[in-house]
Design goal:
Elements: H1 3-19, E1 25-28, E2 39-41, E3 47-52, H2 71-77, E4 78-86, E5 89-97, E6 105-115, E7 120-131, E8 136-143, E9 150-161
Antiparallel strand pairs: 1-9, 2-3, 3-8, 4-5, 5-8, 6-7, 6-9
Length: 162
């Protein structure tokens, strides 16, 4: 097996470990606005997402491994930029700003979509991958359920090297 394949397997294992790890949440309110998207990401119970790259980097990222960093750093680096109703669904624009001055990190998280009464109506899983030191990137996560008002809350934020 080539080193490149070993790294890919290590990153996948790290993502699985990160998504099944400790629980913590911080939320954002619902307000209007617009955003762009460029590629799809995974979803779980009723949500879907897309990814938008805001920085102007190029080339590839190598090395790293799957060393997990603290939950506090993931919470510090991730935030819901906006939560809005788009058609009849809630959409969360999640932004990752890598606070490291030297390391590239990937972020995995879930978004809990809540109706106006505060009841969770859908949860979407997504990730923002290979964010260079000091860079910012974002992902859109959509609740695939009919909601005309509500909030979006970050759940299980994780940050892993690589």
């Amino acid at each position: 097996m080539k080193l490149r394949h070993v790294r890919q397997v290590a990153v996948v294992v790290g993502v699985v470990v990160a998504l099944t790890g400790a629980r913590h949440s911080s939320g954002g309110g619902c307000f209007g606005g617009s955003s762009n998207s460029s590629s799809s990401s995974s979803s779980s119970t009723g949500g879907s997402g897309s990814h938008h790259d805001d920085d102007d980097d190029s080339g590839s990222v190598s090395g790293g491994g799957v060393e997990s960093s603290s939950l506090g750093e993931a919470t510090q680096d991730l935030r819901i930029e906006e939560c809005k109703v788009d058609g009849q669904s809630l959409v969360a624009d999640v932004r990752a700003t890598n606070s490291s001055t030297s390391e590239t990190y990937s972020y995995m998280f879930q978004v809990a979509f809540k109706d106006a009464a505060g009841t969770t109506v859908a949860t979407g899983s997504s990730g923002i991958f290979s964010v260079a030191a000091g860079a910012t990137d974002s992902a859109l996560v959509t609740a695939n359920t009919t909601v005309t008002d509500g909030t979006c809350e970050l759940v299980d934020p994780q940050r892993v090297a690589g």
